[in-house]
Specification:
- The chain is α/β, with parallel strands linked by helices and about 250 residues long.
- About 40% of the residues lie in helices and about 20% in strands.
- The protein is globular, with a radius of gyration of 18 Å.
- The structure holds magnesium ion.
- Magnesium ion binds near residues 27, 29, 197, 198 and 199.
């Protein structure tokens, strides 16, 4: 695997006249990961950069967040894949929701009925019903309780045929077969692409889009072809990429 901004920039140059699409994760990729997910705001400088990229390339923000949550940070001016592919919103305002959501809602709602018991059993966990998934923030938890919670959720997921995802200080129960990789692959439809992400959910995006330029942010095992250090290096890379092409619209 290659590392470094200039290598990725060089690789991207080869796509320039092929109308490439850019897929960017949000938390941990464009902004630092926050213990409080509601605090992951996008500042003016980042939004300006994204708007420039959006005028020059086809840009998608790809996140596990709900559409409401992500538009709360970046507004409605961007193409968005939300809930890891269950929900989409184009910058023209066209919203698409997967029928899988309706099918799995009752399971998630049943789970949330037991929220109190789970909070008691695993002190410090913060549980959120995200619509298409249930997330468990681990920031306030002690190590033995985290292990206990993981065992519990893995078993629960197995029994109800849900997907269990271990992320960065977060676990999720998810609708099976829905992931960023599939969503990106369908949208790009073989078009050349740059895909950047930092977490385990982005590994689906990398492994299902092997022909794209894939970039892992930060440390850890990855299927990506490139690696860069942190969200600041991502911004540096995006600035360089933005300046590779003059404004078209
Ligand atoms: Mg992320």
């Amino acid at each position: 695997m290659e590392t470094g901004i200039s290598e990725i920039e060089k690789a991207f140059t080869t796509l320039l006249n092929k109308d490439p699409a850019i897929f960017l994760d949000y938390d941990g990729t464009l902004v630092p990961i926050q213990p409080d997910a509601d605090a992951a705001t996008a500042e003016r400088e980042l939004l300006d950069l994204l708007h420039i990229l959006d005028t020059r390339y086809t840009l998608w923000i790809v996140t596990g967040r709900t559409l409401d949550s992500i538009t709360g940070f970046i507004g409605t001016g961007f193409n968005i894949i939300g809930l890891h592919g269950l929900a989409m919103r184009t910058k023209d305002g066209i919203v698409t929701i997967s029928p899988m959501l309706e099918r799995y809602r009752p399971i998630f709602m049943r789970f949330m009925e037991d929220e109190h018991d789970i909070l008691e059993r695993f002190p410090g966990v913060v549980i959120k019903d995200k619509g298409g998934a249930i997330s468990f923030s681990l920031w306030g938890m002690e190590e033995p309780d985290i292990q206990g919670l993981e065992d519990f959720l893995r078993k629960y997921a197995e029994d109800l045929e849900l997907d269990f995802y271990p992320g960065k200080r977060i676990y999720e129960l998810r609708i099976p077969g829905i992931n960023k990789g599939k969503a990106i692959r369908e949208i790009r439809d073989q078009r050349p692409a740059l895909i950047i992400g930092d977490d385990i959910t982005d590994e689906d995006a990398f492994s299902l889009n092997k022909d794209a330029i894939t970039v892992k942010v930060g440390a850890g095992d990855t299927e990506a072809g490139f690696r860069i250090q942190d969200y600041l290096s991502v911004r540096e890379l995006l600035k360089a990429i933005a300046s590779q092409k003059p404004e078209t619209s």
